[in-house]
Amino acid sequence: MSDLSTLPAKEESTATVEGRPRTMAADRDLEIEDVTLNLDGDMKGELEEEKEMREDGGGKDPFKNKKVHRVVSKWMLPEKVRRTYLERANCLPPPVFIISISIAELAVFIYYAVWKPQKQWITLDTGILESPFIYSPEKREEAWRFISYMLVHAGVQHILGNLVMQLMLGIPLEMVHKGLRVGLVYLAGVIAGSLASSIFDPLRYLVGASGGVYALMGGYFMNVLVNFREMIPAFGIVRLLIIILIIVSDMGFALYRRFFVPANGSPVSFAAHIAGGFAGMSIGYTVFSCFDKALLKDPRFWIAIAAYSACVLFAVFFNIFLSPAN
Questions:
Q1: How far is Cα 199 from Cα 323, in angstroms, rounded to an integer?
Q2: CA dist 190 → 153, 182, 219, 313 (Å)
Q3: Is 324 helix (H, G, I), strand (E, B) or coil?
Q4: Cα gap 80→83, rounded to integer Å
Q5: Fewest beta carbons within 10 Å, which of 14, 77, 109, 308?
Q6: What is the pLDDT of residues 122-167, one digit of tens each?
Q7: Average pLDDT over residues 277-306
Q8: Which one of the listed residues 194, 273, 282, 289 is annotated catalytic?
């Protein structure tokens, strides 16, 4: 009896012990099954999304022929808006603004340096100071000079530095943000440069497009700074170092033209570099960070415009009533 009574207990105990691993194994099977289902669901969603994009692109990979745009998006945009850019990226209109400005600046330089014997290959000659484009403190009532000075350059190194920088940076920016926004930032830097020069260096002439170039760089680098991990691809640090080297070289040449110009030459103000950079870090940053947003609905844009307008009004007041050049 005792043997018979203990036998079921043992069997029951064995069943219980054996049942535990079975339950754990079943739980593991369920977990693996859930993970597999989740992975299958994610892959299915990605495949469906890719299928929809291929159908929209006529059965082709919509990004296959957009290698240039993919590279531009990595250099110019944070990761979260790159797909939006690639979906609607095209070369219409092409980067007309920055190319047109560059051609105009090169044409004016060739006119004065080659067709007129102005000795403009290294620094300014006294003859070029009579140009109707240059900013002259004695002719500040000719308001167009606050913008047209960007067309005149003080030498080969000066114009090459500006052209390289604005083409290297301006064309990708215009591909992403189009000409209206890039033109707004560029001209804001040009105007800020001439007005700042009229205040901080009121008796000096001003030439070159450095104000506009530094505005583009200021806006771009503020975006890089805010979205550093997303906007710097491989070798991005090297690129930044190269651009910084160009900036240091250009600033060094500007300081030379200002403080170490030969006795028979004319010193040129360098305040446009700094003012253009600040214009870019305010207006430029706001404009370039609103790729997928309505610019006029962004309060940051209006704050930047209000601050910029206040500085412009102060500069106008200074030039009319307080300038030593009066």
A1: 7
A2: 14, 12, 14, 16
A3: coil
A4: 7
A5: 14
A6: 555 656 778 899 999 989 899 999 999 999 987 787 888 889 889 9
A7: 89
A8: 273
pTM equals 0.74
153 catalytic residue (yes or no)? no
Whole-angstrom Cα distance, residue 284 to residue 278? 9
- Numbers of helices and strands, H then E, in the chain: 12, 0
CB 173 within 8 A of CB 288: yes
| Catalytic residue of the set 148, 194, 198, 210 | 210
Which tens digits make up the pLDDT trace of 238-288? 667 776 787 787 778 778 777 776 655 556 677 888 899 999 999 999 998
| Per-residue model confidence as pLDDT tens digits over 46-96 | 344 444 444 444 444 444 457 888 888 777 777 777 787 787 777 777 889
The reply to whether 197 belongs to the active site is: no
Asked, as a colleague might, if the bond just before 94 is cis with ω within 30 of 0, I would say: no
